Amino acid sequence: MKKILVAPSILSANFANLEKDIQMVEDAGADWLHIDVMDGHFVPNITIGPDIVKSIRKITNLFFDVHLMISEPQKYYQDFKKSGANLITFHNEVDINKKKLIQDIKTYNIKAGISIKPKTNISEIEDLLPYLDLVLVMTVEPGFGGQSFMDDMIGKIKDLKSIINKYKYNCLVEVDGGINNQTAIVCVNAGADVLVSGSYIFSSTNFKKSIESLTL
Predict the structure, then answer these.
(1) Has domain 5-213 been given CATH number 3.20.20.70?
(2) pLDDT over 70 percentage in the chain
C-alpha cells in the first residue's frame, strides 16, 4: 500500500506562534510543510515572502512544499529556492513559458510542480506531465483557507492519475482545499498521493490525531 503524504498548510497556523505550530505538526508526524505564497494579484490575498521561508527553514527539517500563487513566478522562484524550498509549484494559469520554468527550477536540484485551479482542464497540462514532479489539484478557488471542498473535482483527480499511470510518469498528485478526514478518503481513493490540510489540522486540539485521521 502506498504511503499518503500529509502536508499541513501554514496558511492556517497561528502566526503569533508560528515556530511552535510548525514544531508541533512536525512532532505529530507531518511529512511536508505546505507554504502558500500569494501576491494580492494572481489571487486576492497577500501572505508571506522568501524571508519568512528562510526564517522557518532554521527551525525544521521538514520538506518545504512551496506553492507560488503569484503572477510572475519566473521572477521569484530563485528567492524561494535560496530560502530553503524543496519543491516549487506555480500555476498553469500564469502567462509564461511553463516548460522552461519547470526546467529552470529543476536545474537547482529541487522539484518542480504545477497547480491547476478548479476551472482549468487537465488537457492544458498534459504535455508538461513528463517533466513534472507533482501536479497540485485545487479543490477550492485559491486565495483563502477554510473553504469547502468541491466534490466535482474528484473526477479531475481520477483522470489525472489515470494519465500518469498509463504513461508511467514519475509525478505525484497533490490535493489542496477543504481536506479533512472525510474528503481525504475520497481524494486518496481517486488517486491522490499528497494531502494538503490547513484549518482541519491547525484548528484541532490534537495535531497528531488529525494528521493520522487523514491517512486511515
Answers:
(1) yes
(2) 99
47 by DSSP, 3-state: which? Answer: coil
The 3-state secondary structure of 144-156 reads CCCCCCCHHHHHH
| 1 pLDDT above the threshold of 70 | no
Q: How many CA atoms lie less than 13 Å away from 173 in the CB half-sphere? A: 26
The H or E element containing residue 196 is strand 194-197
Grid cell digits, residue 186: 475520497
Active site residues: 36, 176
Please check the confidence at residue 63 and state whether its pLDDT lies above 70: yes
The model's pLDDT over 119-159, given as tens digits with 9 standing for 90+, comes to 999 999 999 999 999 999 999 988 776 778 999 999 999 99
pTM of the model: 0.96
